[in-house]
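Q: I'm writing up a methods section and want to include an example of the input and output format. Could you take the sequence below and give the corresponding predicted structure tokens, formatted cleanly so I can copy it straight into the document?
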Amino acid sequence: MQRIITLTTDFGYRDYYVGALKGKIYSNISNCTIIDISHGITSYNKEAAGFVVRATYHNFPKGSIHIIAVDAFISENTPAICVKCDGHYFITTDNGVLTNLLIDKDYEQAVYIYNEGGMRSNDLFVYCAYQLSEGRPLENIGTNVDSLQKLNFISDKLTIEENTIQGKFVYEDNYGNLITNISREVFERVGKGRRFQIRVKNSLITRINNYYADFKLYENSTLNDRAGDLLAVFNDLDLLVITIFYSRLDGAGGSPRTLLNLNMYDNIRIDFVVENI
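A: Here is the clean output for your methods example:
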């Protein structure tokens, strides 16, 4: 059976590291397809890596192997690990990068990968992927792990009250869109159809777009006339996004971060109107 192997790294795109890793995989695993999830994770940013993998892995078939090489130094405190969760295999080091993935999931099995030869992380990750592709069970690949290291990520912090939700900006994408940790489910459960105000620094948003370009256009107007409008929308992950229409991360027009002086992990607050009975 051909295996899908995905790669998420902080290697960047200018150096030889990605090519070398792919070469090692193809040299050891002939019947596989390598898919790049991202090599643009900010250096050592385990939280961003975990978010990207969590947002992506479920689009692949069960049995896929996901290598996560972000801040992936093998040490006594951060051994190489292979985790089976939701029918997928995740290979990385036990450095907390899987915290986002395991927020609301229980893993099926986890092992610290045998490393008697003292392999470097990428070599050991590839060797583990090879063993999985050969059908070897996890108990033959390493020693069972009872609990995984978890990080106290800032993005975990979500405060829910009867009339208020307070969350955080947890990820900025390539367009400058700021993704929050507030889900549609939480918004609808607390809001119950009530009117609301989304507070973003000194700005207020009182409507959530159905899609990014959900604007009423008048005669002789185009979407370009709405460029620069601040908006809120739920993305394909059903997470609330704050953005500026035609936002640009680096360039003319700017982004919410640059124009509104927002930073990652800043607070975002939603107040629901208390209806008089």
